[in-house]
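Why does residue order matter? Because the sequence determines the fold. Keep that principle in mind as you read this record.
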Amino acid sequence: MSPVELGLAVVAGLVSFVSPCCLPMVPMYLSYLAGIAGRGTAVTALASPAGTGSGPAIAVRVQPSRALIMLHAAAFVAGFSVIFVALGASASVLGVLLRTRLLLLRLSNSAKPKPNLCASCDQCHS
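Structure:
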């Protein structure tokens, strides 16, 4: 890949990222991931001085792994993708149904006689 192609790919990625359909989702995405990354699990451990076997309990906070954060990020993107693909597919089906109904309406309306709007002259529907 040449430097020009790489530069164009980076610019295209940035333009698609700041597009009006993607940019509003960035705060949701970042807050979701920050909530996952900031969520720790408290584990209680006993501290034993010099092998005595007893001591005060200490709560240790364990952070989630990067793999868990990446899994949640992939699930977030997959969820939005499924929803938007489903909405697009349903809009397409609705458009096809309306298009066939429109053709039927046009055919049925063209067979009807047109009403005479003006009884005083013969120029309205001649």
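The longest strand covers residues 41-46.
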